Amino acid sequence: MTLEYDPSVLDGAALDALLYDRLNPWGIADDFYLDLVMGAPSVLDVGCGTGTILRRARAEGHSGRFAGIDPDPAMLGQARETDAAEWRLGTAAEAVWKAQFTLAFMSGNAFQCLLDDATILESLRAVRRSLIDGGSFAFDTRNPAVAEWRNWNPDHSYETTDPLGATIRIHHEAGEPDANGLVPLESVFQGPHWDQPLVASCSLRFIEPASLDALLTAAGFEVADRFGWFDRSPFDPATSAAIITIARAA
């Protein structure tokens, strides 16, 4: 990361964005999406964040068209340090492309930032418009049946090293979901730069598979494949940690 890192002027949200790649090193989920990207002639990364997957695909020799869209300026600023793709600031619903991609994907559980049915449907329809007929949309979201939010508490803290070499300690604090599946979440950062912890707050939506599939159908998609983990193991509604969907533009 070559963007300026000045901890004295950061709030929790900006710190979370600037440390994102350190907190989320390359793993099996990235391998899953990279494999899909390398097999597609043209790709749209929805919620691209720092652009890690498209940048890796370009470095590995992909020569097709890439575009990425993300609503977070700090994240997108890091992606824009390279010309691996066309980078655009905006939400999924603000995707402007028309029938230009064979694959769209949304990694890192970013789908859970779509907090209500109307936003999900608007976003899915924008992605559908961006794809050619028969194109694919791959994305993941956590399975509410597993209740992963109950592990997001101070007992499960972890550490990273920031760009100045300081040790930053992080933990999460999550509440129980409301009637719409919204889980309130705080990420708490402690380190030598600050007298008080920095806090980044958000909500994540946990959606049931049946509700998800109804929205996909309404947006013009049909489910082609579904997995319970990034090793492509089958989805089990009761035990799978993830709902990994590959939907086809009908």
What's this, in brief?
This protein is 24% helix and 31% strand. The protein is α/β, with parallel strands linked by helices.
Structure description:
With 250 residues, the protein is α/β, with parallel strands linked by helices. The protein folds into 2 domains: 7-144 and 207-249, Rossmann fold, CATH 3.40.50.150; 145-205. The protein has helices at 12-18, 20-23, 28-38, 52-59, 73-79, 117-130, 209-218, and strands spanning 42-46, 65-70, 86-89, 101-106, 131-142, 158-161, 167-174, 182-190, 198-205, 221-227, 242-249. It starts with 11 loop residues before the first helix and ends with a strand. The mean pLDDT is 95.
List segments where confidence is low: pLDDT < 50 over at least 5 consecutive residues.
none
Number of domains: 2
How much strand content do the residues show?
25-35%
Q: What's the count of strands? A: 11
Task: List the helices and strands in order.
Answer: HHHEHEHEEHEEEEEHEE
Structural class: alpha/beta
Strand order of the largest sheet: 3-2-1-4-5-11-10
Topology of this structure?
Layout: H1 12-18, H2 20-23, H3 28-38, E1 42-46, H4 52-59, E2 65-70, H5 73-79, E3 86-89, E4 101-106, H6 117-130, E5 131-142, E6 158-161, E7 167-174, E8 182-190, E9 198-205, H7 209-218, E10 221-227, E11 242-249
Parallel strand pairs: 1-2, 1-4, 2-3, 4-5
Antiparallel strand pairs: 5-11, 6-7, 7-8, 8-9, 10-11
